[in-house]
Design brief:
The complex is a heterodimer of chains A (124) and B (278).
Chain A (H helix, E strand, L loop, with lengths): L1 H28 L17 H8 L2 H28 L4 H35 L1
Helix pairs in contact in A: 1-3, 3-4
Chain B lengths: L8 E9 L9 E9 L5 H11 L19 E4 L2 E4 L5 H4 L3 E5 L6 E3 L2 E2 L2 H9 L9 H5 L3 E3 L3 H5 L12 H5 L1 H5 L6 H11 L7 H8 L13 H5 L6 H16 L11 E3 L20
Parallel strand pairs in B: 1-5
Antiparallel strand pairs in B: 1-2, 3-4, 3-5, 6-7, 8-9
Classes of the chains: A mainly alpha (124), B alpha+beta (278).
Chain lengths: 124, 278
């Protein structure tokens, strides 16, 4: 049943990525039409808009959620590809442990970066 | 479909031979076979055995695509030798080999033991909670035509092993259950008379189970009976995910219909035999 659990989360994180990347695309490329998260007007990559977005807590939270979803989804997919090569049981266990450690480390680092971005925007 | 009119001709059969008692590895051997319209690959192989080399080994039985014994790799594609017209796949040369993803017993005979052991591991039979009813039935289990339709196509499986031979995941993971056992686990899971999902999900939801399938779909392409194992595997995944999310519908158990009344067994029909297993 463990594989069922992992697969279900793989599907769930895929949907989360789809939604959050959709928001990203709308913010970045439909700025002239919808103007989401672009309070200063103009281009989405204008400095004033970047700083304004960085000050929003919801943006920091969305970054962290996207990071978690992308890490899980990507590492699970990579694990599937590696398992396809037919490694021994011991190596499969090693890959599982390695990917959990790698995923958690990258998540902690990414979360720290997202929060730092938010804090600096507020301070400056 | 209109079939092209073919004239009788000589076709070269390239057959992969292997005798584990003599050979280190398989090798190819050529035979020229005089082919007439209407001849199947199995007919051609019989001709070789009768006129050229009696030591050629192959497995066959019904000769009509029902028993699933004569599965072989014909021109690189798994197919039943008895069900394949030579002129449909070859005009000058034809390669014949044992099914891939299985060990070779001899020449064109694959060792299907892993297929059957994996098949058995998925509880491919009706599992009931009420063992008493199974042992001492008081009537028949009701099933509507719609309920039957949900799994009917998967009952046509003849266990020939072609789907297992065509599966790319089987080629990389010999412990992968494979399309045939997974499709059969779905067939019994969807049967309204069955209560065995909780047993099966431990096997098919395991590390070599349904989630290893990449949906290449080759299993469904080569099935000689029109079964769609790739679909069954995806539907089985859905059952497993819904069960994990506690969203799987609890269906109503098949009602037990009373035995028919007012009819007598005809005297020429013998009594059913006693149970051979307690």
């Amino acid at each position: 049943m463990r594989e069922t659990k992992l697969w279900t989360w793989h599907i769930f994180t895929g949907i989360v990525i789809l939604v959050l990347l959709g928001i990203h695309m709308i913010t970045m490329h439909l700025d002239g039409i919808l103007g989401w998260f672009n309070p200063a007007g103009g281009e989405a990559i204008d400095w004033a808009n970047i700083v304004a977005r960085a000050k929003l807590l919801i943006i920091a939270i969305l970054y962290i959620v996207l990071l978690a979803a992308a890490l899980y989804h990507g590492l699970y997919g990579f694990r599937t590809i590696l398992f396809e090569l037919g490694p021994r049981q011991g190596i499969q266990k090693f890959i599982n442990v390695l990917f959990w450690i790698l995923g958690i480390c990258l998540f902690v680092f990414g979360t720290w970066a997202a929060l730092k971005f938010y804090i600096i925007a507020h301070a400056g | 479909m209109t079939r092209k009119l073919q004239k009788e001709t000589d076709i070269t059969f390239h057959i992969r031979r292997y005798n584990p008692d003599v050979d280190d590895k398989p090798h190819w051997q050529k035979f020229i076979v005089h082919v007439e319209p209407g001849m199947t690959v199995l007919d051609g192989l019989h001709q070789i055995r009768e006129t050229q080399d009696a030591s050629l080994s192959m497995r066959y039985s019904c000769r009509m695509g029902v028993c699933g014994s004569c599965g072989m790799l014909l021109n690189g594609r798994p197919a039943l030798a008895c069900n394949t017209q030579i002129f449909d796949i070859a005009s000058k040369a034809l390669t014949v080999a044992s099914l891939p993803n299985f060990d070779i017993v001899k020449d064109l005979v694959p060792d299907l033991t892993p297929l059957f052991s994996k098949h058995i591991s998925t509880y491919p039979y009706i599992v009931r909670d009420d063992a008493d009813e199974m042992l001492n039935p008081t009537g028949e289990f009701f099933q509507s035509p719609d309920e039957l339709t949900e799994y009917l196509q998967f009952t046509y499986c003849i266990k020939c092993g072609l789907c297992m031979a065509a599966c790319p995941t089987m080629a990389t993971d010999p412990n992968y259950l494979g399309p045939q056992p997974l499709a059969q686990s779905y067939r019994y899971t969807k049967d309204t008379r069955d209560d065995g999902f909780n047993l099966r999900k431990k096997v098919v939801g395991g590390s070599h189970g349904a989630f290893r399938c990449h949906y290449a779909g080759e299993c469904s392409n080569v099935c000689p009976k029109g079964v769609d194992p790739a679909r069954a595997i995806q539907l089985m995944k859905r059952e497993l995910v819904l069960d994990y999310l506690k969203l799987r519908k609890h269906r109503t158990k098949s009602a037990i219909l009373g035995k028919p009344e007012g009819v007598k067994r005809r005297p020429e029909i013998p009594e059913a035999p006693c149970f051979t297993k307690e």
